[in-house]
Amino acid sequence: MTEAMSQEFRGYLKKIGSGVHTSKNLSRQESAAATRLMLQQQATPAQIGAYLIAHRIKRATVDEMAGILDAFELLGPQVPEIDNPQPVAVFSVPYDGRSRTAPLLPLIALLLATEGNPVLMHGGTCMPTKYGVPLVDLWKGLGIDWTALTLEQAHQVLSETGLSMVYLPQHFSLAHQLVDYRDQIGKRPTLATAELLWCPYAGNRHQFSGFVHPPTERLLQDVFALRGNVYPYTTIKGLEGSCDLPCDRTNIIGVYNPDNDPPFERLFLSARDHDLGGAEVPLESTETLLAQMHQVIAGQKSPLLPAVLWSGGFYLWHLKLCPDLRSGIEKVRSLLQEGKVASTLQHLCQKISACS
Questions:
Q1: Residue 106 in contact with residue 135, Cβ under 8 Å?
Q2: Residue 55 maps to which CATH number?
Q3: How does residue 335 score in pLDDT terms, banded at 50, 70 and 90?
Q4: Where do the Glycosyl transferase family 3 N-terminal domain residues begin and end (predicted)?
Q5: In 10 A of CB 9, how many CB atoms?
């Protein structure tokens, strides 16, 4: 760390942290520079903590969020494009996991890969402030360990199996070293919102971002537009900010496709219209959840099955793997009962093992 760098960062901190009447927003370029200084530890720990909490209180602007993503793109990993006619489904979900309802993404990813649509996830370890169950732990419970793969191996596995994960501690250690600050300040920083927008894939994709509050979705849309996004994306008011579709209420979904006129449309879908409505499955424990996941993969009766049929059917339809939602739901049922999802998981286990 150099004195000049910490003085530069001090200027950015002073600008956003001066209070209601005198603080100012950063430009996109200033936000990118400040984020680079944090990622590269060229700001002091006191400066980083103060900046994160000040930004949390002020709330990031569209320009500031775009700058954060510019820094992520410059310093972070990018999985090279694979040879597949289908766009890679990139899931951007909260890194601090789920604590109340059962997460479904590993099962959704297996379903999509079984039908030939590749999936790339990204995430880390158990993380503040929710300390919910992280995706990587669920995958370990299914026999898949993403944590030791190099980025090149992650790319290879994606190309050969249609499934992979960018694991923050292994592939983006610069960002992972800022995780402790989340615990120390006791709040999700602006970086947590950036993770809902970040896409560590260099090729043709369809990005999915979960959200809880409507202003977050508006921010996502505006940042995508400012950064010149040319790929489809979908925003989902999902369970605990995830991309899992609720079964107990109407789903609110935003769909952006640059080839459509208008490019953005709103979907309102109800599981009750397909006899799949009901209470959400609670997350009782990781062990119970994994047992339920194994039941689903084996084509057995499980409390998770209606939720998997609902979310899985939506994604098969939405990614044009089925002609309509109802046929997507039935396709999920047949893939599970015929053991095809189990075969996909077995194939993935073999490929991961070959990398070790």
A1: yes
A2: 1.20.970.10
A3: very high
A4: 12-71
A5: 23
Q: What six digits make up the tokens of 138?
A: 């669920």
- Phi, psi dihedrals of residue 122, rounded to the nearest 5°: -145, 145
In a domain, 97, yes or no: yes
How many Å apart are CA 68 and CA 19, to the nearest integer? 22
Q: Do 226 and 251 lie in a common domain?
A: yes
Report the distance separating Cα 225 and Cα 72, nearest Å: 17
| Per-residue pLDDT tens over the stretch 223-262 | 999 999 999 999 999 999 999 999 999 999 999 999 999 9
The structure tokens listed for 253 are 């979904």
Lowest-pLDDT range of 1-5, 69-73, 126-130: 1-5
Specify the 3-state DSSP secondary structure of 339. coil
245 and 171: one domain? Answer: yes
Instruction: Show Cβ contacts of residue 44 under 8 Å, excluding neighbours closer than 6 positions.
Output: 1, 6, 9
| Tokens encoding 1 | 């760390």
What pLDDT score was predicted for residue 300? 96
Residue type, 289: L
**Burial level of 275, CB count in 10 A (0-12/13-18/19+)?**
exposed
Number of domains in the chain: 2
Q: Is 118 exposed, middle or buried (0-12, 13-18, 19+ CB in 10 A)?
A: buried
Range of the domain at 92: 88-343
Q: Is residue 37 part of a domain?
A: yes
The reported pTM is 0.96
Q: What is the dihedral of CA 181, 182, 183, 185, to 10 degrees?
A: 80
211/215 Cα distance (integer angstroms): 9
Residues 195 and 287 in one domain: yes
